[in-house]
Amino acid sequence: MHLVFDTVTIVTDRRAALKAKHRAAILQAARDLIDERGGRDFGVDDLAARADIARRTVFNHFASLDEVLLAVCEQELSVIIDRFLADMSRTPVGDGSRASMFDELESAARGADLAPAIASMYRILGAPGKDDPKAAVLTQTAFSRVTERLRAEVARRYPAADPLDAALLVESLMSGIVVIADHWLATSGPELDRPALDAWDHLLARLVHSVRSGYMADG
Fold first, then answer.
1. With contact defined as beta carbons under 8 Å apart, do 22 and 61 qualify?
2. What DSSP line would sit under 103-169, residue for residue?
3. 0.85 cut: is pTM over it?
4. pLDDT truncated to tens, each residue of the chain (219 aa)?
């Protein structure tokens, strides 16, 4: 009986390892094609050929090419969000007020290296403007997915806080980041020279000032 269970476990582990290997190969192939072609100008057949897998294997992991691109973007943003959450975890938990929650998020946002992630998303998805509505939808979707992680972390750190207050705070900040990212890409980015980075810092400061005014007082 133990031998049967051990055999099943080994087979399951091998399948999981192969699945993880294929997913990683797909995402790496997507990154390589994006770098070579300067964006998302490739199809599923190109992706499968580069990853050295069957076309159907791509769809075993992702429902569409857009989902592959979103996964690549999420990897980019996850590095930043991980740093964001790490900064928050090192900060003493405040008194649970809206102001203290905002202070934590503000500090983490300023410490996170957001501009390079935004520039990378631009390269992957294209500029999220009127000329490319698909890029706008994909950008919003990518940010929505990582926003859920932030909401969960704020809820975990402040279990006694009003859930609606916490959700509104995170959504306001992250939605604002999408807006200033669009503006930054149109006016300064996606180059990462000193003037462009200074412009990003200025836009982030304006966003913080704007959102803060709604969260400083608890009355």
1. yes
2. HHHHHHHHHS-HHHHHHHHHHHH---STT-HHHHHHHHHHHHHHHHHHHHHHHHH-TTS-HHHHHHH
3. no
4. 555 555 546 556 778 888 889 999 999 999 999 888 888 889 999 999 999 999 999 999 999 998 898 888 877 777 777 777 776 676 666 666 777 778 777 877 777 778 888 888 888 877 665 566 777 777 777 778 778 888 888 888 888 888 888 888 888 888 898 889 888 988 886 788 999 999 999 999 999 888 877 655 544
